[in-house]
Design goal:
7 helices, alpha/beta, 9 strands, binds S-adenosylmethionine, two-stranded antiparallel sheet, 7-stranded mixed beta sheet, Rossmann fold
């Protein structure tokens, strides 16, 4: 696979900061609620590049009888996800599992899913890898299954080298155009149920949320 080798190192080192920054941030809650409103009770939900489990932690409260699996290549992110979700589910039977795993290996996970989430993973993957993950996700969906995708667009730029705030890591960010993603989903027979864009307050970049159905 061709991802920037620093990506996982950077997320491992900055996992705690990422968690602190976003755990009380409500900027994506509207999108999470929208997704939750389309999820049937008892669904099997996969979150690719789950980070510290923010999305699963939100959905598990909205849909406590669903079965959640979060995967991420960063061990630190997975450790935080396990702790975070367990701490908010003390009295409930845990229905969330987290694994250190490359999202490119999605086909190694057995069975099919009612919902596959991919929240801010593809900005860190070159087009070839992003498209492959999306293709495999579409094929892993059950009939009427949902795909939840969030990513960053910048019409004037396809990619950009950015340096982490501590200056330790240089990451390539990829800005996949909306039309490209939509055409890909159409090719695999998915229909758009919901699409929304918002400007991220810190970076001023446009973020897109798309929910599509098989
Ligand atoms: C910006 S974070 C998003 C985390 C989470 N989805 C969220 O919305 O808060 C991107 C995540 O993707 C993970 N990641 C990057 N490349 C990956 C890959 N090939 N497979 C699995 N996880 C990956 C990183 O470790 C990081 O946790």
């Amino acid at each position: 696979m061709t991802f920037d080798t620093n990506v996982i190192e950077a997320f491992n080192e900055n996992a705690q900061k990422y968690f602190e920054r976003f755990k009380k941030d409500h900027q994506y809650h509207g999108w999470y609620l929208e997704l939750g409103s389309h999820i049937e009770n008892g669904s099997r939900v996969l979150d690719l590049g789950c980070g510290p489990g923010l999305l699963i932690n939100h959905l598990i409260k909205q849909k406590p009888d669903c079965q959640f699996l979060g995967i991420d290549m960063s061990e630190q992110m997975i450790a935080l996800a396990k702790k975070h979700v367990a701490s908010t589910q003390l009295n409930a039977q845990l229905s969330a599992e987290f694994r250190v795993m490359n999202a490119m290996d999605i086909n190694d996970i057995s069975g099919y899913f009612d919902v596959i989430c991919n929240a801010f993973l593809i900005p860190y993957l070159p087009p070839k890898d992003s498209f492959q993950i999306i293709e495999h996700s579409c094929k892993k969906l059950k009939p009427n299954g949902l795909l939840f995708l969030t990513w960053i667009v910048l019409p004037s730029l396809e990619r950009e080298k950015s340096v982490s705030s501590d200056g330790q890591h240089s990451l390539t960010m990829y800005y996949h155009p909306i039309e490209t993603i939509q055409k890909l989903l159409e090719r695999y027979g998915l229909k758009t149920l919901f699409m929304n864009q918002q400007v991220e307050p810190t970076s001023q970049k446009t973020e897109v949320c798309l929910i599509a159905q098989n």
